[in-house]
Structure formats: C-alpha cells, structure tokens
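SAMPLE LOG
Freezer: B-3
Tube label: C17
Construct: single chain, 453 aa
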Amino acid sequence: MIEEQNILETINMIKLYNLDIRTVTLALSLRDCISEDCDKVCENIYNKIKKYAKNLVVYADELADEYSIPIINKRISVTPISLIGESCKKNDYIKIAKTLDAAAKDVGVNFVGGFSALVEKGMTKGDKLLIESIPQALAQTQRVCSSVNVASSKAGINMDAVLKMAKIIKEAANLTKNEDCIGAAKLVVFCNVPDDNPFMAGAFCGMGEPEAALNVGVSGPGVVRAAVLSLDGNADMSELSNKIKQTAYKITSAGELIGRKLSKRLNIPFGVIDLSLAPTPAVGDSVAGIFQAMGLEHAGAHGTTAALAMLNDAVKKGGIMASSHVGGLSGAFIPVSEDAGMIEAANKKYLNINKLEAMTSVCSVGLDMIAIPGDTPVSTIAGMIADEMAIGMINKKTTAVRVIPAIGKNAGERLFFGGLLGQAPVMPINNLSAMKFVERGGRIPAPIHSMNN
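STRUCTURE (predicted):
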C-alpha cells in the first residue's frame, strides 16, 4: 500500500518546490539518411523525424496531465550532422540545419540537437565545413543547437579546434547581436562529450546508440533545497549527504516512471535518465539556493566548491539506486543565466569566472551560459576553452564551455534570452593575453592515465 505521507510528499515536490521533468529527448539515428544528394539527405532527415517524433509532444502532454508532473521541454537529438552531410557531393550544411529546424517546428519540439562534430583528434573535410557553417546555421534557425567535442581523456586537446571554436563563438554572437547574441547561447564546446545527454545545447545521438531511444532529464533544485532546510540546523555532513541522496532517489524514480511510460507509448526503447539538477530562473529553483541552505552565505563564498562536490556526489549516489540506466551528464549544473541565485551572486560580484572554473572541477559540465564582454579577444575565449578542456581531460569527466560574447556590451550590463535561458549579467574577465599560447596549435597530449587498456 502506498503510504499517504509519500503521496503528500510528492505533491509538495511538484506544487511547492518546482519538481518537474526538465526534458524528454528523442534520440534518433540518421545514419540511414545518408546520400550523395544533399536534397535527398534533407528529405530523408525530415521524413524520419516526422515518422518517429510525430506523437512525442502529444504523448508527453498526456502523461504530464495523467501524473500531474510538468514536462517542460520536448526535444530531439540526432546523429552528429558532420557525419551525415559529409556524404554529399555538394555539401550544404545550412540547408540541413534549416531542414532540422523545419522538422522540429512541425512536430512541436522545443529544440533539436546534433548539429555537431567530434574533432578531438582532428577534422575531416565534413567536420571543418560543418564547424564553419555553425554561426550562419544558428542565426538562420530557431530550434537548432550545436556542439563540438574538441578534447577527451584518451585523445588530448585539439588546440587547432579550440582556437577555431573560439572564432566560431564570436561570429555566432555577432550574427545574432540583435537577439542578445543568442546564437552563442545555442553552442557548446565539449571535452569527453557523452553520447546520450538529453540536455541542450549538447545533446546528440551517439554512434553506439540504437535507432531511436528516449532519454529523460530531471530537475529538482527546489526539492533538494527544501529537503536540506528540513534538517536540524546542527545536522552534520553525513546527515546532509544522506538527506540529499534520499531526495535524489525520489526525484529519479519519478523521472524514470515518466520516461518508461512515454517510451512504451512511442514504441521505442527507454535510454537513460540524466540525474543532473537543472535550475531555472524561477525563485526557489536554484542550485545556488541549495548552497545557502547548506550554510553558506551565498554562492561564491569559500566552501562553495566543497558544497558542490558533496551535492554532486550525493545526487549521483541517490539516483543510481533508483535506476539501472543512469547516463548523460548526471550531477548538478551551474549555468549563470538559468539560475536565479547564480545571477544574484554574479550581480553582487560574489562569483567571478575564476571561482566558476574551480567549481567546474566537481560539477556536471563547466562554464555554462556565462556572458562576457563583447570585445573579448578570440584568443582569450580560446584560453577559457583550453582551461576547461584540461579540467575534463585530466579528471576523466565531461566539461564544457558555453560563453556568450555580449556584442556591444561591457561588464555590468545584461543579456536577456527569456524562458529557461533566463538573463545573463556580463561578467568581467582577466585581460591578460593568451594569444601566443593558443596560436601554437597542434594537440596537447593525453595524460598518462589515458593508457589504461
């Protein structure tokens, strides 16, 4: 018999503490869409997305109503498009991006991810063409998201790709400067990118994935914060960790229930559940708020990195007990623009990029949704990317950079994206030059622990 207390607790999680299913993401292989004719590729892609995703939004909305758990985003991720477009005699990656956008619009999803390339050891002709098309593709579409993996613990860091991506980020921001540089907000640079991540902008369908799968991303910073606040103020770190684990177990169970129900209705396999605590700009739904509940005056105080490390570990331990199919990133996100507490900390100068970089050594991703001055040199952006890639490479974890050069704006001003992307205070940066370093090119070798076969 289900206990009344458990029912009331779940209702409170949803109604009072912003528990939701952040995303259900249909991962779709496009490998059978390859053709020498780009028009045929586009036709195949459109038809396949329509075939598999035609009921995604309808069924997700039905389940949200049946279980009274909000499902915020419905998304699609596809095979890295550099691999699909490379087969064409006449490559037109912009046309493919527009096809993805049209198909996403027609099936009603929020975003489609996979305008991507994997170049940690070098670039093929197709990779290079796709990367060079990213700024135009993001400027000319609404729903397309892009990612490029430039490093891994096995391959090292492709510094040629790092510098190239810094230029691409700056160009993407320039082309969308009248939309608060949103092009750069839909572009992420990775180290150790996972093949089954349901979260944008980094989602794509990896080469080892099935024909189709449903991946789920849960949320719940508000629920975790409430659980921490429910403890006695003198609770020690072990008690705090156990409470977070118990809460993560409940959040994960709800997410997997919805994911499996939806995958059954769509008649596709359930893939993974990503445990990442994904914040929103809503008050009370903040990872930074969890730090305050733990006892820190605010995010950015000394101790923030330790608090984040414990939070990340406890979320994973609790979630792994609730599901045998945990994947994606899993942990805690610290996107500045998408977290009300992080925005406040940045505005009050409690947080700077150096502190955020330190926190990325223990969180799910990296420097995420951070606005920087529009006149930031490309070489400085490349240095930021290289630093994050090094953290991921050495620690055998995923790290990423999603920075937005705020064209025409300086530190202290703001970018406004709306919705889950929120608003980003433009943060000051270190003006010391990295130019001679990043322009050396080549590949930073993989660390010694890469030789573990």
